[in-house]
Structures are given as structure tokens and as C-alpha cells.
Amino acid sequence: MEKERTLNKEYAIKLLGFLCPLVYFASYLTRKDYSIVMDAIISSEGINAGSAGLVETLGVISYGAGQIISGILGDRFKPRKLIIFGLSVTVLCNLIMPFAPEGLRFPVWFVNGFAQSMLWPPLVRIMASLMDEKRYNTVAANVNVAGISGTIFVYLTASLIWLKLFNNWRYTFFASAAVSGIILLTCLSGFKRISSFIDIPSKKKEVSEDGVSKKAPGLSFKQLMASGFILIAIGIILQGALRDGITDWVPTLLRNTFMIPSEYAILYAVAIPMLGVISMKVVGIAANKWVKEELNGSAVIFAASAILSFVLLLTYQNNKYLTVILAAVIVGCMHAVNFFLVCVVPAKFEKYGIVATMSGIINSLTYVGTSLAVAGFPHLIKNGDWGPCIIVWVVVSVIGALICLLAVRGWKKFKA
């Protein structure tokens, strides 16, 4: 009987390892599609970049704020129910978006952002509760690879099919909704099957050696502050600003600097998520084999990003291919930082029974940085000159490296 239970749990965990990346693939399909075709919307409808960017910013704000709510709910209710609800609403929002007039896009994408926030914290709770550290790192990396792969899917289909062949950005949303709808049905079936083998309690409990359940120990505010979490939080905001800010605005940078059509700018920019896939696979392996301190690893990567951003500053007007490659490597660096700070750090709170809550808070900080970047970067561009904006990328990277180094000591003590 004990052997049978072990086999059933192993099967369920493997199935989760398949479903969790699928969920995040759908999440990125239905969240990144707007930012990817944003430049096409601007050029085809004649609206200004500020108005188009505000739609994206509202989605990012609701996504970030919703992370905290989702995190709290994820520690108290069945996480699979939150995931199914979030996926259902985001599919609906993407079906509405192509028909929405300009004014209605703001509330629709705001709701979409909130629905998206119901996905990541419950996923982290499921993985952290049921998987050991090595498997958690592997599956978490795969989840992020799947998310980036969703972005690649939208980039390629938008640039090569919907914009190039049909000259219609609306088809991008239909495709994202259709694929995500299939994934939603797959998850409904998969989670139902998993629940027949194992389940996650509504509240986190610890089981002592004598088999008696007891509540997980609480985390005091003093402990949290001593851990260096405030410094980590700043680092998370900074990586979010660079990762998503650069990703969202590179197509516009290419169009402004080299005067190329929107569909080609989007196609060139697909190199950014492609390199992100490579960086996530590499960092997932590194986390299991070589990098034992996530903050030291983040500091080194931030420093590399500073150097690359400085090189980009000197060369971005010379060659569009070099510009895309440098931007892609910088964003790839931020994906690696994201893995350490947004995937690995929350799992350390699992013993306190607040892994979903902390995951929500931490991921929301990423999108504080994203919203600042998406809304703020355009204001740094003067008469088509992206130099001041790229200088900010250099400065942000340097500060990120210093912040992570300062937080190392407190975080080591907290984990011990």
C-alpha cells in the first residue's frame, strides 16, 4: 500500500511538471500579445504611444497588485481552483479585445491583468509544497521557459502571419485565446486526475515525527527585515524594469532608429525571448549544480548587464542586428535574475506556510518595475534619440548588482 501511494504521488508530480509549464505558456500568450502588437496598433490606428502604452501599464498594474491578493488566497484555498478561474477569465478578455474600441481596451486589459495574477502564486505553492528543491528548480525553470516560449509564439505568429499576410493585429488575440482555451481544457482534466492521487490542504501544515499535524511557524516582521528582504525587493523591481521595459519597447526602438516596418521590427525582436529560453535552461541547470547563493548569482548577472548596456549605448545606432543581439542578451540576463529572485527566493518561505503569499508579493514587485519602465522609458526619448534611455539601463544594472551584494549576508542567515 505504501509503495502504491509513493508511485501515485510520483505520477501526480510528473503530471504537475507537465501542466505547470502549460499554464504559464498560456499566461504569456494572453498577456504579452498586446505589448507585442502595440506598435502595430499605434501605426495602424494613428493613436499616440502614450495612450497605447497606458493600456499596457494598466494591465501591468492590475497584474502586480493582483499578485498580492492571489498570493494570500493561494495559501488559504485550493490553488488549482484559482488557476482555472484565472485562465478562464484571461481567455475571455482576449476574445473581447479585438472588438473593443480604444476607450474600452483600458478596462478589458485591466481585468486581464488581474486574471493573470491568479496563476503564478498558486503554481509556486503547488511546486514548493510537493517537490524537493532540485525538482522545484527544474520545473520552475521549465515554467519560465514555457512562458518565454509563449512570447516567441506570439512574436512569430504576429510578425509572419497576422501582420505580414493579413495586416490585422486583431488575429493575434484570437490565436492566443484559442490556444489558451485548449490548454484550459487540458488543465481541467489534468488537475482533476491529480486530485484523485494527492491534494494540497487549504492551509499549510507541518507534520511532526510522531505524525501529529501542527501549524507552520509564523514569520515575524523583524525576521523579514533582518533577512535583507527590502534590498531583495529593490533588486526585483529593477530586474522587472529592465526585463519587460526593454522587451516591450525594442520594436519601437528599431522602427524609430532604422525606419523599418512594424512587422519586421517585431520579427527582429523575437531574438529577445529566444535568448530568454536559453538563459532559463542554463540558469536552471546552474541552480542545481553550481550556484548555491542566489543573490551572489544575481549580482554577477546584473554586473554583466551593466557592461552590455554600456556597449549598446555606444553602438545602438550603427547596426540593427547588433542592437537586437545586445538587447536580447541583456533581457536574457534579467530572465536569469528573475529565476533567482522571483522563483528561488519565495520557495524559502515554504516552511512558514506563506509561500504563495510571498510569491505574490515578490512577483508584484517585478511589475512595479515593469509599469515604471513601460510608462517611463518613452519619456526618456528625445527626438528619436534613445541614448538617455539606455544610460538609465546602465545605471539600473549597476544599482541592481550593488543591492544584491548588500543583501547576501542577511539572506544567508535567514535561510540557515
How would you characterize this protein structure?
Helices cover 80% and strands 1% of the residues. The chain is mainly α. The chain has a single domain, classed as MFS general substrate transporter like domains (Growth Hormone, Chain: A, Up-down Bundle), CATH 1.20.1250.20. Strand 1 and strand 2 form a beta hairpin. The longest helix is centred in the first third of the chain and has 44 residues, at 2-45. The two termini are 36 Å apart. The relative contact order is 0.15.
Sum this structure up briefly.
With 416 residues, this protein is mainly α. The chain has helices at residues 2-45, 49-74, 79-96, 102-116, 120-130, 133-162, 170-195, 221-226, 229-258, 262-269, 271-289, 294-315, 320-347, 355-376, 387-415; strands at residues 205-207, 213-215.
